[in-house]
Structures are given as structure tokens and as C-alpha cells.
Amino acid sequence: MKTNVGEFDGAFRTLLFVVAIIFAIMTGQWIWTIPGAILFATAVVSWCPLYAMLGISSDKHHIA
Fold first, then answer.
1. Which tens digit of pLDDT belongs to each residue from 3-58?
2. Can you tell me the distance from the alpha carbon of 36 to that of 26, in angstroms, rounded to the nearest whole number?
3. What is the pTM of this model?
């Protein structure tokens, strides 16, 4: 599987995951952890299925 999530994109997704966790803790609305976890998982594996379907890549080294 080719990577399609670049370094900046992955770091931003990880930041959004942290924000979602903090928001969930502060509000008690734990449903926000689900999209946060999806963003974090795609950042860790450097592959996003939505990007793959749309033919998008933010990875400079592997253009879709």
C-alpha cells in the first residue's frame, strides 16, 4: 500500500486527535474520540482510504 499522508498532514491529524481527546475529557462527550482515533490511525500508517478513493496525496515522495 502506497503512503498518501505526508509529514505535515500526519502531524496535523495527530494534533486534531489530541484536541478531540481534550475536548472529550472537558465536555464528557466521548463520541469525539472516534473521529480523533480515525485521524490518528491514518496518521500512524500514513495512509488514508478517503485520499486513496479521491486520488489525493499529501506525501511528497509518493504521488497518487
1. 999 999 999 999 999 999 999 999 999 999 999 999 999 999 999 999 999 999 99
2. 15
3. 0.86
CB atoms within 10 A of CB 63: 11
Task: Name the one residue in this structure whose C-alpha cell is 505526508.
Answer: 6
What the block records as the C-alpha cell of 15 is: 494534533
Q: Using an 8 Å Cβ cutoff, are 6 and 60 in contact?
A: yes
List C-alpha distances in Å: 27 to 20, 24, 54: 10, 5, 34
The count of C-alpha atoms lying within 13 angstroms of the C-alpha of 56, restricted to the half-sphere facing its C-beta, is: 10
State the amino acid at position 6 in one-letter form. G
